[in-house]
Every structure is written in C-alpha cells, then in structure tokens.
Design brief:
Elements: H1 5-10, H2 28-40, H3 43-52, H4 56-75, H5 82-105, H6 119-123
Helix pairs in contact: 2-4
C-alpha cells in the first residue's frame, strides 16, 4: 500500500481510513503541499478540521484553501495571502475605473449610465482600512 505524505512524514502505516491520504498523496507535489500545511497549521489541526466537515466537496475546498494559505504564509510571512489579494484588488479597481472612463467616451452613452464604481469606492479617503489595504513593498 502507498503511504500518503502525512503518514510518510510520521513514519506510520497509512490505513484506508487515513483522512489526509486523498489530499496529500506520496508524490512530490503532495509532500510539498503537506510540508507547507504542516509548518503553518499542524497536522492535528488539519485532521480535526477535516473530521468536522461532512461534505466531501467542502473538505476538498477546505484543504485547497489551507494549502494556498500555507504556501502564501511561507512566501510572505507577514502578509500571507493578503500580499497577493490586495494588488489584485487594486488592479481590478483600476480596470473598472478605466472601463467607466471608456464607457463615458462612447458617443451613444452620453453620460446617462450609472458609473461602474460609486463615488465612495473611487475616493479612497473614506476607507478606514486604507492603511491596511496598502500593497506590501516589493
């Protein structure tokens, strides 16, 4: 029987009821994902979370989310996944502003459409979390 990355790490026998086996196979990617999740969250915490979730689809999503968060937390120790999310939000906001500007330039539009972003989103000064949402230095 093949060992999953978790059982291989613990040097224990991998049973058919191992809750981590479907998510951390004994290949290179599975071991890399397991090591990241183990360093950030710990094996017991992940196993407990998986035991509490009844739906297999939700378990899959939970494991994928924990893998991504662990990888980002190892890559960006201070910001974690926020270091990726905030610049993407900024790019999205800039693209929506550009779209709004271009829509207003169309001859058939005549400034009658509602803006893509409202005034509160475009001002930036009304956001109390502006300091938190500032992208991390490169």
């Amino acid at each position: 029987m093949n060992y999953c990355a978790s059982c291989r790490y613990r040097r224990s026998r991998c049973s058919s009821s191992c809750p981590l086996a479907p998510y951390f196979p004994a290949n290179e990617e599975g071991e890399r994902n397991f090591q990241a999740v183990h360093r950030v969250f710990g094996v017991n915490r992940i196993a407990n979370i998986l035991r509490q979730i009844e739906s297999s689809d939700l378990r899959d999503d939970a494991v994928r989310s924990h893998i991504l968060e662990a990888q980002y937390r190892l890559q960006y120790p201070v910001y974690g996944s926020v270091a990726v999310i905030v610049p993407l939000l900024h790019q999205t906001r800039q693209a929506l502003l550009e779209l709004d500007r271009l829509l207003n330039l169309l001859p058939h539009n005549n400034n009658t459409s509602t803006p893509v972003l409202n005034d509160q989103e475009t001002s930036g000064n009304d956001n109390p979390n502006q300091e938190i949402l500032r992208p991390p230095p490169q």
